[in-house]
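ok trying this again, last paste got cut off
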Amino acid sequence: ELVANQPQDVIVATRIVEEAVCEGTCTFTFSTAATPIINYISSNSLQPGDSFIISGSNLDSSTTPIVTINGQECSVSNPSAYEMTVTLPENILPGRNLPIVVNIPEKGNAIFDGLDGTVDVKLVVTGIFPSSGTPQTLLSISGYGFHHGILVKVGNSPCPIRSSVQARFSL
């Protein structure tokens, strides 16, 4: 029972079982010399489908790195020990300061040296049809990076979205 205005004993407990028994080699040596380091990103303002270059050291050319932006996997081509080309998927969601993770199999995640490890992915409009009409005209907007919750305005007037598919809205 808690008593107001009096010091109380605090007990912190965990459910510790017993220590595991090691069978075989149970050691690990951390080496900063082997840590993958990213020190250059060719662009930090991208659009869905864009390619950019990531450069650094200890990137390893014997395996294909796994690169994600905000958790969404990107394709990687031409990996070497010093650089790789990364292509964003067409359906990547737009946003600002989206985190990049570069994982080098057998080495782990790269660290960013002098970079914040983020990119901006822009929403892209590739077409509006028709280009003119009355206030009740149904518009079709196509592009990349559209997602649920997007806001569309014509002038200062918000437009209700009547239907959407991955690359098109109908208003």
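PB: full thing came through this time. DSSP finds no helices and 17 strands in the chain.
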